[in-house]
Amino acid sequence: MATDTGVRPERQKAEGGSLRGQRRPRTKLGLLWRSTIGKKTVMAVTGLIMVGYLVVHMIANLKIFFGAEEFNAYGHWLRVMGEPFLHRGWGLWTARVVLLAAVVLHGVSAYQLSRRDLKARATQYAHKRGRASYATRTMRWGGVILGLFIVWHVLDITTGTVHSGEFQEGRPYENVVGTFSTWYGNVIYIVAMLAMGLHVRHGFWNAAQTLGVGNARRDRVLKAVANTLAVILTVGFVSVPIAVMTGSVG
Ligand code: HEM
User: Fold this and answer.
1) CA of 176 to the centre of ligand 1 (A)
2) How far apart are CA 89 and CA 80, in angstroms?
3) Entry pTM
């Protein structure tokens, strides 16, 4: 019989999700967070929030093809977004807080789910080494690469801490061109963008399954949407370093 965490007791124990010895959560939200399906739902919802952000970010990045003035005006708008209703910077900080919460919840759930998976495999395959599938391992490594990339990207383009050359406050166009004027800037970003494409492709599909959107009829459409989304995002983002490298932006 399934428990209120949605997992059978014997499987829950094998997955390390047993509540024995742990304080039982008092609220429904606490119970959901403890359960495997709850963590998968958190991953799906936060993943979709981040994909939404990536689509907007990729489209905004394409403004770089229209020159420094237009791109820097967009950088300025990020800071004054919501004015005069909001105080300067509040709109940007709200977006930052939502994104940071999504990244942290996504990462913590992924870590906890893979620990459960490893424990369950150790129990089920006591005599054999039960390895995670290729897709699962790609997702885990892709997630780690993207986490590291986000930290690098913010230190590079927002604070300027690791920026190559001179960082110019309020001039994202010149800063982006600076980043893609070094070989390692191109390598870091292009590798991260390819990892992002693979992660989005598989993650979007996983999220649809978790949220119960998939069925035999819709699966083909969902796979096509996941592939198209991944290709558009990868090509859109990678077009910027390629444009700087080839001299069409600079
Ligand atoms: C070629 C690829 C990319 C370029 C050229 C690029 C460029 C930029 C620029 C110009 C900004 C605004 C900086 C500012 O004015 O403060 C920014 C912000 C940001 N980007 Fe990207 N980006 C790229 C890819 C990505 C990817 C793939 C992610 C996520 C996985 C990402 C996450 C972010 C985040 C979270 C911020 C907000 C940082 C803040 O809080 O100010 N970017 N990016």
Assistant:
1) 10
2) 6
3) 0.87
